[in-house]
């Protein structure tokens, strides 16, 4: 029996943008634009923490799902400024983005802490979106696959095949995030195929076939269809273009 086709997943990472008022205006506009795609593409928005609960209320009964942009690995405690996975879950989140390159570069995230956060997310009933990606220097040195495979192996340490099958990976070449530069479709497909092959080695072919792998890095309406048309590209993790309802909706439609 043939495996079920992987359903595309397009997520908007708003980063540190939009007040609560602006966030609500954006999702209300977006809801109407993508309502007809309910069964075709999974759509996720990741506002800043302060907007999660209001946005969760605003997207009830819609085909939009909610993600946190990060979580701490402890369930509670003296961690000023941090948010736990259980807090995200209760606020209405289904997903949590972990290991984004900005978290790694600016806030000291490591493969080990990404793994601890993923363990906490799973325990709280959240699905991790695990980000991996190489810097420009690493790509120019021919180390792309070495770097991203190390990040995947570290992030998934200790997880079983049944757990990993539901996870989402996001390949985000650091040199393409917010720079206007985008990996070519061939570059994106090459890395996605390598990651899927790695999952087959770490677990099995069935698990590798179930894991969805998003591409992120200057995804826009004019390049989305080509990127999302690649065999192993199962969606997009969108940054700047997710802050405009029309642009984000166009990217979602490209995945339908």
Describe the structure concisely for a colleague.
By secondary structure, the protein is an alpha/beta fold. The chain is 44% helix and 16% strand.
Describe this structure in words.
- The chain has one domain (8-254): TIM Barrel (Alpha-Beta Barrel).
- Helix 3 (85-91) links the parallel strand 3 (64-68) and strand 4.
- It has an eight-stranded parallel beta barrel with strand order 1-2-3-4-5-6-7-8, surrounded by seven helices.
- The chain is globular and about 45 Å long.
- It is an alpha/beta fold and 256 residues long.
- The model has no long low-confidence stretch (mean pLDDT 95).
- The chain starts with 7 loop residues before the first strand and ends with a helix.
- It has twelve helices and eight strands.
Task: List the SSEs and their pairings.
Elements: E1 8-13, H1 20-34, E2 41-46, H2 52-58, E3 64-68, H3 85-91, E4 95-98, H4 101-107, H5 111-123, E5 127-132, H6 136-140, H7 144-155, H8 161-164, E6 168-171, H9 185-202, H10 205-210, E7 212-216, H11 221-228, E8 235-238, H12 245-254
Parallel strand pairs: 1-2, 1-8, 2-3, 3-4, 4-5, 5-6, 6-7, 7-8
Helix pairs in contact: 1-12, 5-7, 7-9, 11-12
Summarize this structure as a short list of keywords or feature phrases.
single chain; 256 residues; alpha/beta; TIM Barrel; 12 helices; 8 strands; 44% helix
């Amino acid at each position: 029996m043939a495996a079920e086709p992987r359903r595309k997943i397009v997520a908007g990472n708003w980063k540190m943008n939009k007040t609560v008022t602006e966030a609500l205006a954006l999702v209300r506009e977006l809801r109407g634009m993508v309502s007809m795609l309910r069964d075709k593409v999974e759509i996720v928005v990741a506002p800043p923490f302060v907007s999660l609960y209001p946005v969760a209320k605003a997207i009830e009964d819609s085909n939009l799902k909610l993600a946190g942009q990060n979580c701490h690995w402890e369930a509670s405690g003296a961690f000023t400024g941090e948010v736990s996975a259980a807090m995200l879950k209760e606020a209405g989140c289904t997903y949590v983005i972990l290991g984004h390159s900005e978290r790694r570069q600016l806030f000291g995230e490591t493969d080990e802490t990404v793994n601890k956060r993923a363990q906490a997310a799973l325990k709280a009933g959240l699905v991790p979106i695990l980000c991996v990606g190489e810097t420009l220097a690493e790509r120019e040195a021919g180390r792309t696959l070495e770097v991203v495979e190390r990040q995947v192996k570290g992030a998934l340490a200790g997880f079983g095949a049944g757990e990993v099958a539901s996870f989402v990976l996001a390949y985000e070449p650091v040199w393409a995030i917010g720079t206007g530069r985008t990996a070519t479709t061939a570059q994106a497909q090459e890395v996605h195929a390598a990651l899927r092959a790695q999952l087959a080695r770490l677990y099995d072919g069935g698990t590798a076939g179930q894991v969805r792998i998003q591409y992120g890095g200057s995804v826009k309406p004019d390049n989305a269809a080509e990127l999302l048309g690649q065999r192993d590209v199962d969606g997009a993790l969108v940054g700047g273009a997710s802050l405009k309802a029309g642009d984000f909706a166009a990217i979602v439609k490209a995945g339908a």
